[in-house]
C-alpha cells in the first residue's frame, strides 16, 4: 500500500480510539455521584499538571547520560540535552479522593515523595496526602479531598454471615482506607476510652457483623449492668450463650466455666480436628470462635479498699477473676478464644497489666491524660503526637480511635462507623437460633472421632 493511505488508516484508528476513550470517560463522569465527580476532576487535574508540578517540588531527576538513539539523532558535534525524568503516574478516583500509583525513578522514592506530601496536598487542594510503598519500584499516593475522620459514618448490620472470621472490618483510616483487625490467632483486644466516645458502638459492630455466623458464639460480662437483664447488652442477650452483670461472684462463675471450656477444647481438639490450632482449619459450627466481651472490665478486677470480711471476699474474687481472664488471654488463642476487654480506665490500678499487655490489638478512643493514653496503647504512642488519643477529646471525634495497624508503622486514627443498639438487637433476635453453648458441642472423650463428629454436628 502506498504511504498516504497507510497514514490515513493510522489516523482513522487513532481518531476512533480517542472518540471511544472520550465517550467512555464522559459516560463514567455522567454516571458518577457528585462526590466521585469532584474526585474525577481532581484526578484529571493531577495528571494534567504532573509534568510541571513534579519538577517544581524536586520530584524529578536530570538524566545526563544520552541514550544510543539520542546520540544517533543528535546534530553533529552537539551533545544531546539531558532528559528530565519524573515518576510516571496513573490515577483512580473514588468518593473520597484519588489513589495515585507512581513508579519510582532513581533517587526519588517513598521518603522523597513523603517529604513533599504537605506541598502536594496544597497544590491539589486536598485535606491530606499519604505515601506508602506498593511493591518494588512502586508507590501508592493517596489524596483525600476531605477529612474522613471528621465525617461520622453508620453501619447497619445485615443477616448475611461474613465471608471470613479471620478479620474484623473496623472502619476507615484518615485516608479513607479500610482498616480491619485480625481475629485469627489474636488472644485479646483491649478497647479503652472516655465514656460516650463509641466503645459500646464498636462492640455492637462486632456482634452485629458476626452474629449471623453459626461459627461464632458470644459471652458477655457487663460491669455496667446491675443485673444480667439490664444495660447495653440486655437486648442482644438472645445471641449470647452466657451473660452476667456486675456481680463479681457471677462473673467468677462465668470465667471459671470458660477456662474449663478452654482446657476441654485443648484436650479434645487435636484428636477431633487433627491440629492444636483451630485457626489452621478455621472455626466452624461444631468448633465455633468464642468471643468473650468484658465491658467496664475494671469492675471485675479492681480491689476494694477496706479490711472487713465483705471487702476481703470481694478482693479475693477480683484477684481470681484477674487470674482466670489472664489464663484465657494467654492460652485461649489457639483454641479459638478472643477476649475483648473494654474499659474507661486502662491504667494498671484498674486492669492488671498482664491482661492489658497480652492483648494483641489495642484500641483507644479519646483519653484525658498522657498516662491513660500510654496505658491504653503503650509507651510508643508518645512518639506519635498526631495519633495520640488525648488529641481526640472533641465531640467531632466521637467514634474515632487510635490503634496500630498490622504492617504499618506507628499509630493510625480510625473512624469507626456508628452501630446503634437497636440495629444490633434486631440482628441478635433474628439470629438467636444460632446460639449454642460451645461446651455442649465438645465431643465426648470416648465419643466419635473427627470424621464422625463432623457428621454429628
Ligand atoms: N462511631 C460513632 N460515630 C458517631 N457517633 C457515635 C459513634 N459511636 C457512638 N456514637 C455516639 O456516641 C454515643 C455514645 O456512644 P457509646 O455508648 O458507644 O459510648 P461508650 O464509649 O460506650 O460510652 P460508655 O463508656 O458511657 O458506655 C452514642 O449514643 C452515639 O450517639
Automatic annotation (TrEMBL):
Source taxon at top rank: Bacteria
UniProt-listed GO biological process terms: cell division
Transmembrane annotation, as ranges: 6-27
All residue ranges annotated as the FtsK domain in the record: 176-374
PROSITE patterns: FTSK
Matching InterPro entries: FtsK/SpoIIIE/SftA, FtsK_dom, P-loop_NTPase
Molecular-function GO term, any one: ATP binding
Keywords linked to the UniProt accession: ATP-binding, Cell cycle, Cell division, Membrane, Nucleotide-binding, Transmembrane, Transmembrane helix
Pfam families: FtsK_SpoIIIE
Residue sites binding ATP per the record: 193-200
Matching PANTHER family: DNA TRANSLOCASE FTSK, SPORULATION PROTEIN RELATED
UniProt name for this protein: Cell division protein FtsK
Amino acid at each position: 500500500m502506498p504511504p498516504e493511505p497507510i497514514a490515513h488508516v493510522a489516523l482513522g484508528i487513532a481518531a476512533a480510539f480517542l472518540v471511544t476513550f472520550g465517550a467512555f470517560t464522559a459516560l463514567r463522569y455522567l454516571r458518577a455521584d457528585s462526590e466521585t465527580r469532584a474526585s474525577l476532576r481532581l484526578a484529571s487535574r493531577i495528571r494534567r499538571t504532573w509534568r510541571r508540578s513534579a519538577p517544581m517540588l524536586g520530584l524529578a531527576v536530570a538524566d545526563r547520560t544520552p541514550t544510543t538513539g539520542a546520540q544517533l539523532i543528535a546534530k553533529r558535534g552537539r551533545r544531546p540535552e539531558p532528559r528530565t525524568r519524573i515518576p510516571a503516574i496513573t490515577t483512580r478516583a473514588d468518593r473520597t479522593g484519588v489513589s495515585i500509583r507512581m513508579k519510582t525513578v532513581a533517587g526519588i522514592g517513598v521518603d522523597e515523595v513523603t517529604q513533599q506530601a504537605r506541598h502536594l496536598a496544597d497544590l491539589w487542594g486536598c485535606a491530606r496526602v499519604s505515601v506508602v510503598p506498593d511493591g518494588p519500584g512502586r508507590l501508592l499516593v493517596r489524596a483525600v479531598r476531605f477529612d474522613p475522620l471528621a465525617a461520622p459514618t453508620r453501619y447497619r448490620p445485615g443477616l448475611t454471615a461474613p465471608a471470613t472470621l479471620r478479620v474484623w472490618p473496623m472502619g476507615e483510616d484518615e485516608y479513607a482506607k479500610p482498616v480491619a483487625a485480625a481475629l485469627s490467632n489474636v488472644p485479646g483486644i483491649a478497647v479503652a476510652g472516655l465514656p460516650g466516645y463509641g466503645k459500646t458502638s464498636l462492640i455492637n459492630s462486632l456482634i452485629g457483623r458476626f452474629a449471623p455466623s453459626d461459627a461464632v458464639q458470644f459471652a458477655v460480662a457487663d460491669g455496667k449492668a446491675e443485673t444480667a437483664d439490664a444495660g447495653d447488652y440486655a437486648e442482644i442477650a438472645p445471641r449470647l450463650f452466657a451473660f452476667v452483670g456486675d456481680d463479681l461472684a457471677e462473673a467468677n462463675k462465668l470465667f471459671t466455666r470458660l477456662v474449663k471450656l478452654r482446657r476441654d477444647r485443648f484436650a479434645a481438639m487435636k484428636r477431633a480436628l487433627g491440629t492444636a490450632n483451630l485457626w489452621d482449619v478455621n472455626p466452624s459450627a461444631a468448633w465455633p470462635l468464642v468471643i468473650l466481651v468484658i465491658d467496664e472490665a475494671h469492675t471485675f478486677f479492681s480491689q476494694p479498699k477496706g479490711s472487713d470480711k465483705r471487702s476481703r471476699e470481694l478482693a479475693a474474687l477480683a484477684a481470681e477473676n484477674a487470674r482466670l481472664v489472664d489464663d484465657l488471654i494467654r492460652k485461649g488463642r489457639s483454641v479459638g478464644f478472643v477476649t475483648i476487654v473494654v474499659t474507661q480506665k486502662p491504667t494498671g490500678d484498674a486492669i492488671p497489666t498482664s491482661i492489658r499487655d497480652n492483648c494483641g490489638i489495642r484500641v483507644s478512643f479519646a483519653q484525658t491524660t498522657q498516662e491513660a493514653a500510654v496505658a491504653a496503647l503503650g509507651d510508643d504512642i508518645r512518639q506519635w503526637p498526631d495519633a495520640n488519643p488525648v488529641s481526640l477529646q472533641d465531640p467531632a471525634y466521637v467514634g474515632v480511635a487510635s490503634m496500630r495497624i498490622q504492617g504499618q508503622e506507628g499509630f493510625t486514627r480510625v473512624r469507626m462507623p456508628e452501630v446503634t443498639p437497636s440495629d444490633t438487637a434486631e440482628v441478635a433476635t433474628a439470629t438467636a437460633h444460632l446460639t449454642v453453648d460451645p461446651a455442649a458441642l465438645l465431643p465426648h472423650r470416648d465419643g466419635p472421632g473427627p470424621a464422625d463428629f463432623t457428621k454429628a454436628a
